[in-house]
Design goal:
Elements: E1 2-4, H1 9-20, E2 26-28, H2 34-44, E3 48-51, H3 56-64, E4 73-76, H4 82-90, E5 94-97, H5 98-111, E6 132-137, E7 147-151, H6 152-161, E8 174-177, H7 184-195, E9 199-202, H8 210-217, E10 221-224, H9 226-243, H10 245-262, H11 270-284, E11 291-294, H12 301-311, E12 315-321, E13 326-330, E14 344-345, E15 350-354, E16 367-368, E17 371-372, E18 376-382, H13 394-400, E19 407-415, E20 421-425, H14 427-434
Parallel strand pairs: 1-2, 1-3, 3-4, 4-5, 8-9, 10-11, 11-12
Antiparallel strand pairs: 6-7, 12-13, 13-14, 15-18, 16-17, 18-19, 19-20
Helix pairs in contact: 2-3, 6-7, 9-10, 10-12
Length: 438
């Protein structure tokens, strides 16, 4: 089942309904263009896509390319209107509302023998762990996108692997879904929420109103991208500097005091939390947060320190990739005094560094830029979270997973003396080197 829209309740319901009949989902980023959409539709032989009316024109353009003949049905979650119906009829596409699908299913179940009825084409048939749960397509910025095959074992292994960090969700937790659901990071977070009976709220789809949505939800667990934290950080500091005078002096005195406390493992401060930071947290809708996890890109140490001081809770940073079902490493909640690394391996995988002699990185290195370390090299990951390969692309799969099951990230890291992983170079730079660039 294809899913092509921004995060919403129907997105998640559709995904798990698909799982219930042993199917797999093919999510599309809502920003994709017709060429990329038609490529994915054709490669996966999708016949139906769930979306809102806003995505219908792009799907029709993809259909009109003539490269996806099996695509024939669009299911819209916000109802059928005459204009959209005409667009689909002209393109020979069946347009159905989700409400109609749900109504038909409810009618069949209430009037027929569910074990013998010929009307029920798709019976409850739970998948096995080795079945593909979802096709995670890359953005396709450097050619056609690649479809990473993620299984149910991959997803659940990652959820279980987080238990050693004692941040597993519980029935009292609340999560606001705003990171794109086609990205595996958000899907893993939702899997944790659902497996443990927690609640999921969905933002309204407009980043301009994200802060208002956070205030309304008051989440307890927040997965974030650094760009979001950077904006909040800059906005708060701009306000403090603009206020000037005693407020400015008091704020930076409080920030300095709490920064010093972090070095001794202290997240709380009796005076400054009550006087300053608790008020800011409440105004931001973050007064109920018990843990924040940053991923998808590096988070600066200054912003990391700022949020640990302001929230007074663990602010963690992880490292991983789609092919490894999100994070391979994660900083520990008890480690509040160090920054600039992405922690140790999560409980479901192994991580090692291998030599990259052409770049001068060796697993036996003992220093990096004058600082001691315990080896440098390309980051490799192995375990039940490693994906099954790229769909219909055996060559790329063999380049990414070796014969021993190690996933080659292409990124360069080092081990700190404390056993944490630090990222020192990224795949894009290695790609440039292979192409003879600088």
């Amino acid at each position: 089942m294809g899913i092509y829209m921004k995060n919403c309740m129907e997105w998640t319901i559709c995904e798990h309904a698909t799982y219930c009949i042993g199917g797999a989902t093919v999510p599309f980023y809502d920003t994709l263009g017709p060429d990329t959409i038609s490529f994915i539709l054709n490669q996966t032989n999708l016949s139906a896509v769930l979306c809102t009316r806003a995505q219908v024109p792009a799907l029709i353009k993809a259909k009109n390319t003539g490269t996806c003949p099996k695509f024939e049905t669009i299911i819209v979650i916000d109802g059928v209107i005459p204009e959209t119906d005409k667009l689909c009829r002209d393109a020979n596409i069946n347009l159905i509302s989700l409400a109609r699908v749900e109504s038909h299913g409810a009618h069949v179940l209430s009037t027929q023998n569910t074990h013998n009825s010929p009307e029920i084409k798709h019976r409850h048939s739970p998948p096995s762990g080795h079945d593909v749960a979802t096709f995670c397509y890359t953005s396709g910025t450097t050619g056609n996108p690649k479809g990473a095959l993620i299984t149910h074992t991959n997803l659940l292994a990652h959820v279980s692997g987080l238990e050693i960090f004692d941040i597993i969700a519980n029935e009292t937790d609340r999560h606001l879904s705003y990171l794109p659901l086609p990205h595996i990071f958000e899907r893993v977070v939702q899997a944790s929420m659902i497996c443990n009976g927690a609640s999921i709220a969905f933002y309204r789809g407009d980043p301009l109103y994200l802060l208002e949505d956070i205030i309304a939800c008051r989440p307890t667990i927040i997965p974030v991208a650094p760009r979001v934290l950077n904006k909040i950080h800059d906005k708060i500091l701009a306000g403090v500097i603009s206020a000037g005078g005693l407020k400015k002096k008091l704020f930076f005195a409080a920030l300095h005091a709490k920064t010093q406390g972090l070095k001794h493992g202290q997240l709380k401060h009796g005076l400054y939390d009550a006087l300053i930071f608790n008020k800011i947290k409440k105004a931001l809708g973050m007064d109920c947060v018990r843990v924040m996890v940053s991923g998808s890109a590096p988070l600066s140490t200054s912003v990391m320190t700022f949020f640990r001081c302001m929230l007074g809770v663990p602010v963690l940073e992880g490292y991983g990739q789609t092919e490894g079902t999100a994070s391979a490493t994660l900083s520990h909640p008890d480690d509040v005094g160090t920054m600039g690394h992405v922690g140790g391996p999560v409980g479901c995988c192994e991580v090692k560094l291998v030599d990259v002699p052409e770049m001068g990185y060796l697993s036996k290195d003992t220093s990096h830029r004058g600082k001691p370390c315990v080896g440098r090299g390309e980051i490799l990951v192995r375990g039940p979270t490693v994906f099954q390969g790229y769909y219909k692309d055996l060559e790329k799969t063999k380049e990414t997973i070796d014969e021993e099951g190690w996933l080659h990230s292409g990124d360069i890291g080092l081990w700190t003396l404390e056993g944490a992983l630090q990222i020192i170079d990224r795949k894009k730079n290695i790609f440039k080197l292979a192409q003879g660039g600088k």
